[in-house]
Amino acid sequence: GAPLVVCSNGADAGADEARESSTARDTRIVGCGRARAGQSVRIVHPESGIVCPDGQEGEIWVEGPSVAQGYWENEEASNATFQAA
User: Fold this and answer.
1) Which of 41, 61, 66, 73 is most exposed by smallest CB count within 10 Å?
2) Cβ neighbours, 10 Å, residue 26
3) Do residues 36 and 64 make contact, with C-beta atoms less than 8 angstroms apart?
4) Residues 51, 43: contact at Cβ < 8 Å?
């Protein structure tokens, strides 16, 4: 199904609070679920690879045994698909 999308306005909402809103100043937030056991999830700057501070946009990097199955020891496929370091 479609991802959950909520809006948040830091000036009006409390810490860790999200609510539906239609004002232009609100930030749209898309949920992506929780990490599975054995996985590590980080939000990083796409060019530097440095973990982003809270509230900053970045790429979602997921690490774990279930990530990218089929690419292990397949350098050609890995290089064609993945660019992150």
Assistant:
1) 73
2) 19
3) yes
4) yes
Alpha-carbon distance 85 to 77, whole Å?
Answer: 15
Structure tokens at 24: 């232009």
Tokens of 35: 């990490």
3-class SS letters over 3-16 = CCEEEECCCCCCCC
User: Do the beta carbons of residue 64 and residue 38 sit within 8 Å?
Assistant: yes
Contact indicator for 18, 6 with CB cutoff of 8 Å: yes
**pLDDT attached to residue 17:** 56
Backbone angles phi, psi at 46, to 5 degrees: -65, -25
Length of the chain: 85
